[in-house]
Design goal:
Elements (H helix, E strand, L loop, with lengths): L1 H20 L10 H6 L2 E2 L9 E2 L4 E4 L2 E4 L6 E3 L8 E9 L4 E5 L6 E5 L35 E8 L2 E6 L2 E7 L6 H10 L11 E2 L6 E10 L18 H25 L1
Antiparallel strand pairs: 1-13, 2-5, 3-4, 4-13, 5-12, 6-9, 6-13, 7-8, 7-12, 9-10, 10-11
């Protein structure tokens, strides 16, 4: 009897540790529920079939990771649907920076070590933000080296970012309250109304790991649950730093345009 109790307790401990780390036993497989919902597995867990890169990405033990500099890893089979749900797991090393790009231009779900990287000082450029547009409501990241679960849901003019089961962004970009945020991203090079990009994982020169990449198209008959999520506050000092950064971006863009003329 004592042996049976010990086995049960051990099983509960393993399950608890798995839940806390945010991982599943078979991350690169679709569950029965995901199959019913229409999800497609984007990464088979073995190789980078359907992905394009310059030799700087590889697969190790069922995980996508960088193996040198060379640019983004792009899912080339099909573009991201206009209305979609994307799920993925990610983790970073100390100070690492990456991103999930899902629409044209500078349209990014930020992947970051908030504690060590300078971008973590400003919520607008922290993990799970719409980078340089809208900050998450709070920092929901797990410690460096642990797996995080990311989720992006887009339908119509609504964009939702989720992190570790918490909805941290729920933006309708036609809402006048966020007009300034939308303009800020547009100045950087991202138009929130654009569609038709291929999914890409950013190579920022830092160690980063991805797995469990799954996507589905959201049917028109499915109604998205939209609710108010207040973005984290941006201090005056952060705003001033943003303006300096934006000025540098626009000056660099102007120089590049002059070279093309």
């Amino acid at each position: 009897m004592k042996k049976q109790i010990s086995i049960i307790c051990l099983g509960c401990l393993v399950l608890l540790m798995s839940n806390q780390s945010g991982c599943t036993s078979e991350p690169n497989q679709l569950s029965e529920q995901e199959q019913q919902q229409g999800f497609k597995l984007l990464f088979n867990g073995r190789d980078l079939t359907d992905w394009q890169h310059s030799g700087n990405w590889k697969v190790e033990e069922g995980v996508i990771t960088r193996s040198g500099k060379g640019g983004s890893l792009v899912y080339e089979t099909e573009p991201v649907p206009d209305n979609f749900e994307l799920k993925f797991e990610w983790k970073v090393a100390e100070g690492s920076n990456s991103g999930v790009y899902y629409r044209p231009g500078q349209y990014e779900y930020q992947i970051l070590d908030n504690q060590k990287h300078v971008d973590g000082k400003n919520p607008r450029t922290s993990a799970a933000s719409i980078y340089f547009c809208l900050p998450p409501s709070h920092d929901a990241t797990r410690p460096v080296g642990e797996w995080n679960t990311g989720r992006i849901v887009c339908q119509g003019t609504v964009i939702q970012h989720w992190l570790n089961g918490e909805k941290v962004i729920d933006l309708d970009y036609t809402d006048p309250r966020y007009a300034w945020h939308v303009e800020l991203l547009a100045n950087r090079g991202g138009n929130l109304s654009d569609r038709g990009a291929n999914l890409s994982l950013q190579d920022h020169g830092d160690p980063v790991w991805y797995r469990a990449l799954k996507m589905r198209s959201i049917p028109d008959t499915e109604k998205l649950k939209h609710s108010n999520v207040n973005p984290a506050e941006i201090t005056d000092a952060m705003l001033a730093a943003e303006q300096r950064k934006l000025q540098r971006i626009m000056e660099s863009r102007a120089r590049q345009q002059q070279k093309k003329q």
